[in-house]
C-alpha cells in the first residue's frame, strides 16, 4: 500500500513538471512580446479578471487562422484585446477582425491594446450584447474563423450564429468547454458549466461540424473545442 505522503509528493512533483513544461512550451512556441504583456498589465490595472487565453492558445489560434487562409475573423468576447491581438496578427494587411464586446470598459482597454499593436485599422470592435450584434452581421459573412470566448450561458446561441456566419472550411473555436470537468456532470452544477455542456452537445449533434476538444488552460482544467465546418 502506498503511503499517503508519498502520493502527495508525487502529485506535487507532477504538478511542478506540468507547470515547467507549460513554461518551456510558452517560451519556445509562444513567447509574448511587449504588446501582449502590456495587454495583461492594462487589464489588471483596470481591475479586469485575468481570464485571457494562454500564449499557447493564442499561437494555436494563429496556426488555425493561417491554415484556413483567414481574411475575415469574428471574435465573440474581446476582453482586453489579448486574444484579438494574436488573431489579428495572423491576418493579411487587408484582413479584418470583427470583435464583439458587451462591456464599454473592456472595449476601451481592448482598443488601447489594438492601437499599441498597430492593429487599429485591422480590428473592428462592435460594442453591445453579442446576440444582438450577431443578427446584424449576415451581410459581412462568411467568416473564415470564429472564436467564442464570452458569457458561457449564451454559448449555444453563439454556436448557432457561428454556423450561420460560416462557410465550408471555416473553423469555429470556443474557449472554456471543460470547466474543471463540471461540463461533464449531469446536471451541470452552474450556469457556465451548463452553457459549456450544451455547447459540446450541440457541436456533437451537428453533422456539418467535425469537432474535437482538449484541455489547454488553467493547468489542463479547461480548454478549447475546435470545429471545422464541412461542405
Ligand atoms: C471565465 C471566463 C473565461 O473566458 C475564462 O477563460 C476563464 C474564466 C469566467 O468568467 O470565470
Ligand atoms: Mg475564456
Please, could you describe this protein's structure?
This protein has eight helices and seven strands. It has 231 residues and is of the alpha/beta class. It has a single domain, classed as Vaccinia Virus protein VP39 (Rossmann fold). A seven-stranded mixed sheet has the order 3-2-1-4-5-7-6, sandwiched between helices. Strand 2, helix 5 and strand 3 form a beta-alpha-beta unit. The longest helix is centred in the first third of the chain and has 26 residues. The chain binds 3,4-dihydroxybenzoic acid and magnesium ion. Magnesium ion binds next to loops.
How is the secondary structure organized here?
Layout: H1 4-29, H2 34-45, H3 55-67, E1 72-76, H4 82-88, E2 96-101, H5 104-116, E3 123-127, H6 130-135, E4 145-148, H7 155-164, E5 171-174, H8 191-205, E6 209-217, E7 222-229
Helix pairs in contact: 2-5, 3-4
Bound molecules: 3,4-dihydroxybenzoic acid and magnesium ion (MG).
Structural class: alpha/beta
* CATH secondary-structure class: Alpha Beta
Q: In CATH terms, what is the fold-level topology?
A: Rossmann fold
Termini separation: 55 Å
Amino acid at each position: 500500500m502506498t503511503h499517503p505522503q508519498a502520493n502527495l509528493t508525487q502529485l506535487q512533483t507532477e504538478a511542478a513538471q506540468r507547470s515547467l513544461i507549460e513554461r518551456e512550451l510558452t517560451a519556445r512556441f509562444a513567447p509574448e512580446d511587449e504588446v501582449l504583456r502590456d495587454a495583461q498589465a492594462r487589464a489588471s490595472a483596470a481591475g479586469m479578471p485575468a481570464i485571457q487565453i494562454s500564449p499557447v492558445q493564442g499561437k494555436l489560434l494563429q496556426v488555425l487562422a493561417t491554415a484556413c487562409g483567414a481574411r475575415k475573423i469574428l471574435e465573440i468576447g474581446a476582453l482586453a484585446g489579448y486574444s484579438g491581438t494574436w488573431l489579428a496578427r495572423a491576418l493579411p494587411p487587408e484582413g479584418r477582425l470583427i470583435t464583439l464586446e458587451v462591456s464599454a470598459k473592456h472595449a476601451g482597454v481592448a482598443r488601447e491594446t489594438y492601437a499599441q499593436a498597430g492593429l487599429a485599422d485591422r480590428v473592428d470592435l462592435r460594442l453591445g450584447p453579442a446576440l444582438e450584434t450577431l443578427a446584424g452581421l449576415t451581410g459581412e459573412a462568411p467568416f473564415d474563423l470564429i472564436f467564442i470566448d464570452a458569457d458561457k450561458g449564451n454559448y449555444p446561441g453563439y454556436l448557432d450564429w457561428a454556423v450561420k456566419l460560416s462557410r465550408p472550411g471555416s473553423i469555429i473555436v470556443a474557449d472554456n468547454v471543460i470547466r474543471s470537468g463540471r461540463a461533464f456532470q449531469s446536471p451541470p452544477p452552474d450556469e457556465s458549466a451548463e452553457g459549456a455542456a450544451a455547447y459540446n452537445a450541440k457541436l456533437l449533434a451537428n453533422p456539418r461540424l467535425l469537432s474535437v476538444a482538449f484541455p489547454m488552460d488553467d493547468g489542463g482544467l479547461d480548454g478549447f473545442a475546435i470545429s471545422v465546418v464541412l461542405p
